[in-house]
Design goal:
Low-confidence stretches: 49-58
Distance between the termini: 70 Å
Strand content: under 5%
Largest sheet: 2 strands, antiparallel
Strand order of the largest sheet: 1-4
Bound molecules: protoporphyrin IX containing FE, calcium ion
Number of helices: 23
Radius of gyration: 25 Å
Mean pLDDT: 92
Length: 691
Amino acid sequence: KENGTPDFTVEDVQWAAENGLNEVQHTIELENRLLSEGLIGNKIKCPARRNVHQKRGASSESRQQSIHAIGIVEASKKLKERLNLSRSEASQILPKLSLKNSPLERACSEPTTCPAPASKYRSYDGSCNNLVQVDWGRRNTIFRRLLPAQYGNGIDSPRPTTDGGELLNPRNISLSIVGDDGPNSTDITLLVMSFGQFVTHDITYSEDFTFENGSSPACCDSQGQLLPPNDLHPQCLPIELYEGDPNFIASGDTCMSFTRSKVGVDLSCTFGQAEQLNSNTHYLDGSQIYGSDATISNNLRTGIDGLLKSSDVGGRQLFPITPGCENLINHELAVCFQAGDDRVEENPQLTTIHLLFLREHNRIAKELKALNPQWNDEILFQETRRIVIAQLQHITYNEYLPVLLGSQVMVDSGLVLPTTGFGTGYDSNVDPSISNDFAAAAFRVTHSSIQGTLSLFNSADEQEMERSFTLSQYFFDASRLMDDPGFFDSALRGLTKQAPQTIDGLYTDEVADKLYIGQKKSGGDLIAITIQRGREHGIPSYNEFREFCGMPKVQSFDELINEFVQEDIDLLKTAYQSVDDIDLYIGCLFETHVESESLMGPTALCIAAEQFQKTKNGDRYFYDIGDQPNSFTPDQLDQIRQSSLARLMCDNNDGSVTTMQPFAMKSPVGTNQRIPCSSLPSMDLTYWKDM
Ligand code: HEM
Ligand SMILES: [Ca+2]
């Protein structure tokens, strides 16, 4: 026994590993029974897509990894109990204990081998970006943490109160402190919201746990009631609804479904706590367009002239349709569009942004082909992909982040890009992974900016009330794009005119009560789900992050007065016993916006700025850096810098968007009025002509 470390033997380790494996075996047996009894949830509407999802090697890879990781988590719990470790002892000792030579060894994976010399083009899965830490940022690796996890049992159970008790039910917190429909933002457009979601779906995806066949466990029964404990999958964490809840009153439901996120195995392959898995590449690398692995990507390509697959509907270029789904184009069954990220149809605005980028890829590929007839499919595809990713990064750092974070934070965090010459931000010591704290909590305050009703504008730029629609009618349903030939252009005009809501403690009902309602009697609550998500990921409380972000930790609710208004402090007091218990997401949501130019409070700003800094400085393929095999020439870089979201909309619409304001994420007023598309700067691709 050295400096208080408990004694343990090889037998203890073997015993724990075997117990972990047994737990996994039990889970698999339970899953087989649940499947045979039909106790599965199905978020995915399109039956053929479910099929594809199941067969896709990629999805089963993350399932495989998560089931292995669950074995490790269970073994760690057993070992902690057997050795009688405290939470802090467990967090120190378990990560030092290797799984090598234990029955859990097969959970460990070998690091990727990379091509030499380094490729000019990014890998699909993000590997080999960092030349030393070749798996940094790869898909199916775990999230980074800004602060150590706080699990109830030190290994995987949701965060408890500071005195070890249970936190208040998330739905009750949502109902008692989050109100309906806030005011609209001024000066900015709903595109800020939708483009933000598009970027999010590039860099982060903590998938719900899935069975071997790709479906999820049902975490409530088909009548909306809690399942008997025997039928409840261990990865379920449903949220209970009480009498008085509007959804309970409307439907009699007592259960809101919630499935835990997939967990992963750290590359060092040791015992330890649960760490959630990012199923997408962590990099901002267009993976939502091209896919996060080679199989998905190849499926999206035509194999001819570098083009991405698409479908032709009455002369309009839309997404390819999942094979087997071609005839299911009516409203009930959704349309099953395929893209690099399977959330593409989550809502019609998001689908619209996705479509812009699909079309931009094919537009550029055709131009490059005309300039370089000698280039084959592979070169055309990769060169086009490299340009489109560069545009995506440029638009994110040049248009989106300044609006979201404000110019001061951009400067203070080193996020301002040079307008000439090469950028100098790359640092091979920077881990580009997405932080769990950002993805599972802080960045989700953006959900408060969602509008419940989407306005469409006709070609005369007038709002058409009768065509507007609510979100809840169209979750995972992009049939409007298919059925209504004018939809795409009208949605582009709407997105660049309508304002988002402000980010605050007020939410549209469409996501607060009706999330994914479909044909069900009651829907989900994105606020409650987000609170639950943060807790099950072990995200520490808001007060801890104040300290991380350089603000004083507070001792009492009343000390919050510098960043909160008194009314909100009073609300927080009703939801939490102690100021140390406040969920990170809720704290971020209610903070006032100290920085007048930015859309979020100081803690969310700090966590988001940290992330976008790492996303830039940890990416060897970031578009503006020099001296790499992948670097653009100075002339090409200048052309990338001409691109804008406005121009992208001008170049890729269905013919009726002929004017656009230069800054599409800002309202078309004053000096930012809509102007003819031909007056907007565009890229000159002749700089890509091979001499
Ligand atoms: C209509 C618009 C949107 C809807 C309906 C929506 C809905 C959702 C849902 C259902 C989840 C998963 C919740 C869970 O199970 O934990 C989620 C996750 C998330 N959302 Fe949104 N969202 C929207 C827009 C946005 C926007 C605008 C942003 C940011 C700018 C954003 C950022 C995030 C982030 C960071 C996550 C976590 C992603 C992950 O790691 O898996 N969302 N959203
Ligand atoms: Ca990515």
